[in-house]
Amino acid sequence: MSDAGTITLAEGARSLLTYIRFSQLLDKIERIILPKGNFGNKWHADETVVKIRDRRAYVWNILDSKTRYLLASYLSFRRNASTFERIFNEVKRRTKRSPRDLITDDLSSYSVVAKKNYYNHIAGKKFVDSSNNNRCERLNKTIKRRVRYMEKFDNISAASKLVNGFRLYYNLVRPNMAIRNSTPALKAKMAIQSRNPMLSALNRLAPGQSV
Q1: Per residue in 8-51, pLDDT tens?
Q2: Is residue 153, in this structure, part of any structural domain at all?
Q3: What percent of the chain has pLDDT over 90?
Q4: Do 106 and 132 meet the contact criterion of CB atoms below 8 Å apart?
Q5: Which of 10, 73, 154, 202 is an S-S bond match for 167, by CB 3.0 to 4.6 Å?
Q6: Are the beta carbons of 88 and 62 closer than 8 angstroms?
Q7: Distances (CA, A) of 179 to 110, 167, 169, 184
Q8: Residue 167: inside a domain, yes or no?
Q9: pTM for this structure?
């Protein structure tokens, strides 16, 4: 990484290959352990703009406040309530959980879904407020640095694989300083019991260690 905090072309290429190489394995792991996650009642949601070729697209992120687990990172060309509702319902189906509080920015799409599902919607809080959306906004910056080469893709399907690959890496492998260099998966007490040595190895990763 350069002194300015940007990702070089070589680093970006290595990251891309890493996500693609491990994404299928990590996806299998997550399908097994996600319903067992000890998530909190407060979820953050936010969207950030990216480019696919010359077309504007959006990465929708849903983050569990308690564990820093990135529950969703979906790519779409639309930025409306129906798109967010579809993503949110998919997260609820996969986790078998629903939040009590939904923290977002002022985008009206969030308010529509929150009211429809009777969530406590906290929107547009300032930086000094404890219930602001800074966690998700900081995450957006990390994601944009890591998937900046997505604009080279020709279609949204290929770009989506990169976005989801980083999400899996972020949750299951990447140490997180905010939770004492553990991973969000371990913070959520998502243990893996398997005869597959590659799956079981994730349980033995020491804080600060990655694969």
Answers
A1: 434 444 555 566 667 888 888 898 889 989 999 999 999 988 88
A2: yes
A3: 39
A4: no
A5: 73
A6: yes
A7: 27, 17, 16, 8
A8: yes
A9: 0.79
Rounded to whole angstroms, the Cα distance separating 5 from 56 reads 24
Number of structural domains (the chain) is 1
State the Cα–Cα distance between residues 59 and 77, nearest whole angstrom: 9
Residues 148 and 211: their CA atoms lie apart, in Å, by 22
Is residue 209 in a domain?
no
Instruction: For residue 138, give the DSSP letter.
Output: H
Hey, which residues does 76 pair with through a beta bridge?
A: 58
Q: Is residue 4 part of a domain?
A: no
Amino acid identity for residue 190 in this structure:
M
Q: Are 66 and 42 in contact (CB under 8 A)?
A: yes
Which ranges of 66-196 would DSSP assign to H, the alpha helix?
Answer: 81-95, 108-117, 134-146, 156-172, 184-187
Report d(CA 117, CA 92) in Å as an integer.
12
Q: Do 170 and 19 contact (CB within 8 A), yes or no?
A: no
- The domain in which residue 120 lies consists of 9-204
Q: Phi and psi of 89, rounded to 5°?
A: -65, -35
